[in-house]
Design brief:
The protein is mostly helical. It is built from nine helices and no strands.
């Protein structure tokens, strides 16, 4: 699977402890350093201050995912999507978390990847991840369909997927 999309925080001149963005930035730094518990707390503080902060929900989900807490990641990604329904990266990340939880069918990973693609048709990572999900479910024709789409967007990812299809 392709790694997550995590949004880098904007640069700020003077940190302010009661600003959601300050906690978001701390969360990003902690997560990037592998300090997942601290990152989770920082993202939760950002969300407490600004509940509609979709990027904080998404990054909280990614931090949960990186910590092996897949069900918590799923819930955080769902919150990001609830706040920002057209957030293709959060849909893709939701699909990854569903996949790690063994939920590949249409209501799980496949559905999330398809939704990401509906929002952003040229989203290479989502096409690739959908293809991988099809391989896992032994749906060779579905995987080949994603291979054909990827050829137009990213030949390197298309070839990688093609090789995985033919390994099975």
């Amino acid at each position: 699977m392709i790694p997550f999309s995590r949004k880098r925080p904007p640069q700020q001149e003077i940190p302010k402890p009661d600003y959601a963005e300050t906690h978001y930035n701390r969360g990003f730094i902690h997560s990037d350093s592998g300090m997942y518990l601290e990152a989770i707390e920082a993202y939760k503080q950002a969300i407490q201050i600004k509940p509609d902060f979709a990027e904080a929900h998404n990054n909280l989900g990614t931090t949960y995912y990186d910590s092996g807490m897949y069900l918590e990641a799923i819930e955080a990604y769902k919150q990001a999507i609830q706040v920002k329904p057209d957030y293709a990266e959060a849909h893709n990340n939701l699909g990854l978390a569903y996949g790690r939880s063994g939920m590949y069918q249409d209501q799980g990973a496949i559905g999330a990847f398809k939704e990401a693609i509906l929002i952003k048709p040229d989203f290479v990572d989502a096409h690739y991840n959908l293809g991988i999900s099809y391989i896992i479910l032994n749906n060779k024709s579905g995987a080949l369909g994603e291979y054909n789409v990827l050829k137009n967007f990213n030949p390197q990812s298309a070839n990688k997927l093609f090789n995985l299809i033919h390994k099975r």
